[in-house]
Design brief:
alpha+beta; Archaeosine Trna-guanine Transglycosylase, Chain: A, domain 4; 5 helices; 32% strand; five-stranded mixed barrel
């Protein structure tokens, strides 16, 4: 498996490959990171915070996240930098460190992308649920290429968008089987009715 050294962006969110994420960047360490990524056409990793906050000291993070790239950026009216980030591939953290400016960096191992698998008939209701959710969303989901017939894509978007606990979302990110992920999502959705 491929290894990389990447900067990390710890957040209170879980992102999957193919998923978009809109961010406002204001801390110096992340402004520097975004600038470097744009100059070098490189990416960074989004990881869920286990303990701590998105600002200030470097937090503790979970060991699996998603590497991606900046797909769009703008200087916002409020003076902050706005970026749209697109997830590309899951990774596992092997080693992590903290730079002088409190930016988390890590040596990571890229995890294989899940193969496209047809959505089983028993999960057609999840397709309808996601379709209704996406119809109500604007940027960055409105221009997204949709793949409702792909179990990995369907499960990823549902995990990103459903009001699940962050720990549940993280567990679903860490699964390697898209059909098992759909089964678990279906059980979670059914338990909330």
């Amino acid at each position: 498996m491929e290894r990389l050294s990447i900067p990390l962006f710890p957040l209170h969110t879980v992102l999957f490959p193919g998923g978009p994420l809109s961010l406002r960047i204001f801390e110096a360490r992340y402004l520097d990171m975004v600038s470097r990524c744009l100059r070098q056409a490189s990416g960074f990793g989004v990881v869920l915070i286990r303990d701590g906050s998105e600002v200030g000291e470097a937090p503790e993070v979970y060991g699996v996240g998603t590497l991606g790239h900046i797909s769009d950026w703008e200087r916002r009216r409020d003076g902050l930098l706005g970026i749209t980030f697109t997830g590309e591939q899951r990774f596992r953290i092997l080693e992590r460190g903290i730079e002088a400016n409190r930016l988390l960096v890590a040596e990571v191992e890229l995890l294989p992308n899940e193969p496209a698998e047809a959505v089983p008939r028993k999960h057609r209701g999840l397709v309808e649920t996601l379709s209704r959710i996406l119809d109500e969303l604007g940027h960055p989901y409105q221009g997204m290429t949709k793949a409702f017939d792909d179990s990995a894509w369907l499960g990823a978007r549902l995990v990103e968008l459903l009001p699940l606990e962050l720990v549940q979302k993280q567990r679903l990110l860490q699964l390697d089987d898209p059909l098992e992920r759909l089964d678990r999502i279906a059980r979670l959705v059914a338990s909330k009715k």
